[in-house]
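INTERNAL AUDIT FORM
Audit reference: QA-55
Scope: verify that the stored structure record matches its stored sequence.
Auditor: D.O.
Record contents follow.
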Amino acid sequence: MDTVGGWLNEIRYFYKRQVAAPISPHAQALWHWLMWRANNVFWQFPLRLSVPEMAGGTKMSTAMVKRARAELVQGGYLLHEAYGGNRAGGYWLMSCVCPGKALAAKCRIKEDEKD
């Protein structure tokens, strides 16, 4: 990951966003699990993951994973691409430090924005 501050800074900004626009605990758990998976593959996107795989990793039902995924997509935390049929979908985590940019993309923080 080459965003400014790395993984921990993304988590810090994730929680800053929760103050203004909170998401469900299930969506938070899925986001953290996806961050963990992205870190394990050295931030190579897209992450190719099936819904049952995400359900097993987060201990949620497949229906709950789908609802949490939809919430993350709607909130701008995640991009999801379905490849059709039973094939695993593609996932890109969006930066909380630089909203609107994928984590693989570089971003800069202005000095006056840092806390």
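Auditor finding: record pair retrieved intact. The beta strands are 47-49, 78-81, 89-93.
Action required: none
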